[in-house]
Amino acid sequence: MSDLNLQFARNCAEFCVEFFQKLAAGGIKENIIFSPFSVQSCVALAFAGAHGDTAKEIATVLKFTSNSAPEVAKTFQYVLENYKNSELLKIANKICVQQGKVIKPEYANLVKTHFQAETEKLDFNENEAAAASINDWVEQKTAGKITELVSADCFDSMTRMVLLNALHFKGQWAKKFDQNQTIKDDFWTSSEESVQLEYMTQKSKFGYGYFDNLNCTALEMPYENSDLSMFVLLPGERDG
């Protein structure tokens, strides 16, 4: 991995933490599930055609490694090429543009080459048909897991472009859990409230560490036949 791609990975992790903190602000007690890479991928498609202050602001907020669209595009290309034939992780990008509007050839070439992005022209005035087309694509790319990403009222006569990213992952643990070793224990939802949940348990060797800046411990759980892992972060405080 080049220095640029390594920095890209570190910046993605930093963006993930900051984005989660924004989503969790205000004491939300519901579970939060999101894909920071999907967010970055969609905005990166816009960044590829941005200039000046707009490009600088996008690069700053999303922790991109550069203000240069071609350089950033190459870092995304590295990830996409690396997992292009993966059986565990499927990533797809798409740009839908209003019929009658023209995408500049240099932009279309950049997103196709570096982001492997499909392009399709839709009539967003026919919002039911546009929503159906997008949902069909998302359902196909997520193996039927997401069937209704958008609704017709997402689009109107002012809609000109929709940027899409679909991500599907299904893997097996490299070190599998024994169902017979499942236990019940407290899970703290706040500093004073807890619920009883079932916990998977096992004894084995895993990557483990402590992050001072986040006040949490981290556990790395690798997936079988892959360089991908799940990282579980445990706050140092119950309401952390």
Automatic annotation (TrEMBL):
InterPro entries in UniProt: Serpin_dom, Serpin_fam, Serpin_sf, Serpin_sf_1, Serpin_sf_2
GO molecular function: serine-type endopeptidase inhibitor activity
Cited Gene3D superfamilies: Alpha-1-antitrypsin, domain 1, Antithrombin, subunit I, domain 2
Lineage: superkingdom: Eukaryota
Domain Serpin residues, every copy: 17-240
Coiled coil regions in record: none
Annotated keywords: Protease inhibitor, Serine protease inhibitor
Family label: Belongs to the serpin family.
Name of the featured protein: Serine protease inhibitor 6
